[in-house]
């Protein structure tokens, strides 16, 4: 996008924040495996991890997403910016889906209101990290600055 900055001065901070989100998701998934271990994959019970409802399915999704975010953050080279934006939008969509099925029998991920809030917040912050984490050449950065000053 033309409106996303290139070589933003705070990009290392945004990259670190994305890495912390990945670590959080991996930790949430691992703790969910421990807490809900031996149960049904899509159980709808009162299993809580870090104050959020979960089951083995939710834990698996969280752990995989966290690993993908961590790998993309380690690779860098604008792959992390693209992955962060894509998965951030995906997490926000997942949060809306969790909210839609919260008190129904279709709540297969055993979500609670806290789970929905955390998922939406992580998605929003991840999109922000993707928007400000783009790295480019000096020419691209200069073109972005020139376009910004014209507006």
Average residue pLDDT? 90
Large-scale geometry: elongated
Output the strand order for the largest sheet. 1-2
Radius of gyration: 18 Å
Report the total helices.
Answer: 5
- Overall domain count: 1
Instruction: Characterize the biggest β-sheet.
Output: 2 strands, antiparallel
Structural class by helix and strand composition: mainly alpha
Residues in β-strands, percent: under 5%
Q: How much helix is in the residues?
A: 55-70%
> Uncertain segments of ≥5 residues (pLDDT<50)?
none
Distance between the termini: 15 Å
Protein name: DUF4383 domain-containing protein
Transmembrane segments: 12-34, 54-74, 86-102, 108-132
Keywords: Membrane, Transmembrane, Transmembrane helix
Description:
This is DUF4383 domain-containing protein. The chain crosses the membrane at residues 12-34, 54-74, 86-102, 108-132. It comes from Plantactinospora mayteni. Keywords: Membrane, Transmembrane, Transmembrane helix. This protein is mainly alpha-helical. It has one domain (11-150). 67% of the residues lie in helices and 3% in strands. It contains five helices and two strands, in the order αββαααα. β1 and β2 (52-53) form a beta hairpin. The two termini are 15 Å apart. The relative contact order is 0.19.
């Amino acid at each position: 996008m033309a409106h996303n900055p290139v070589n933003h001065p705070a990009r290392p901070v945004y990259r670190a924040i994305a890495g912390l989100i990945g670590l959080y998701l991996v930790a949430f998934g691992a703790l969910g495996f421990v807490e809900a271990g031996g149960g049904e994959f899509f159980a709808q019970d009162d299993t809580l991890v870090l104050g959020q409802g979960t089951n083995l399915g939710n834990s698996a999704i969280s752990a995989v997403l966290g690993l993908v975010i961590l790998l993309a953050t380690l690779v860098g080279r604008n792959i992390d910016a693209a992955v962060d934006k894509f998965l951030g939008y995906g997490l926000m969509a997942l949060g809306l889906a969790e909210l839609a099925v919260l008190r129904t029998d279709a709540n297969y991920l055993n979500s609670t209101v806290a789970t929905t809030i955390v998922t939406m917040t992580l998605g929003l912050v991840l999109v922000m990290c993707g928007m400000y984490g783009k790295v480019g050449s000096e020419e691209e950065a200069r073109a972005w600055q020139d376009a910004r000053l014209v507006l």
